[in-house]
Amino acid sequence: MAARNRMPPWHEHVRLPNGREVLLRPIRPEDAGPMRAAFTLLKPDEVRQRFLHPMKELGAQQVELLVRPDPRRDFALVAAEPLPAGEALIGAVARISIEPNGKDAEFAILVSHYVNGMGLGRRMMRKLVRWARGHKVQRIHGDVLESNQPMQALAGSLGFRREVSSEAGLVRMVLDLPPPKPKQLRPPLAPTA
To answer: How many CA atoms lie within 13 A of 109 on its CB side?
Structure first.
């Protein structure tokens, strides 16, 4: 029997509407260099929408935190060229972090203008939600600029609701995750005579 060509967990090859292929996969330490390089290609508005303030570059410490998530409480994905980590240009990053209470998690997504509007944000958000469910998170939230209508629309289409943020100019997008349904035990089979 031939072995199937299976992808590792959380990996997915995606052909974008423009014909370009990307690999969705967990972030790796080797992505530090390409992430810093990709950051310089972002438009100022893209940076402001993700980081909520202007930035010229990603500092080494910021990059290290991004590429080395704590597997117990953080999950981060990239959409990268299908090349080895460290060589692949990164077009999108999505991250979720479980808060200390263990019930809430905060998400953040950045999709560059090169691959924006091609469904990557939706795919990545669905993976973040799936990961959160598997870690028994009860509520996911992310603060979004009021002007970031595309992110609000994306989150809304996935069941997130808008809440007022404590910070001016921001909207909090929230998704409540129902607890998993208890598994029902099957009744024992009746003995046959």
So the answer is: 25
**pTM flag (> 0.90):** no
User: Between vectors from CA 99 to CA 97 and to CA 103, what angle results, nearest 5°?
Assistant: 105
Considering all CA atoms of the chain, what is the largest pairwise distance in Å, rounded to the nearest integer? 79
Sheet holding 90-98, edge to edge: 12-15, 21-26, 74-80, 90-98, 104-111, 139-145, 170-176, 161-164
The answer to whether the beta carbons of residues 27 and 67 sit under 8 Å apart is yes
What does the pLDDT look like over 166-182, one tens digit per residue? 888 889 999 999 877 77
Gap between the Cα atoms of 62 and 96, Å rounded = 15
CB 135 within 8 A of CB 103: no
| Residue tagged 């509520």 (tokens) | 139
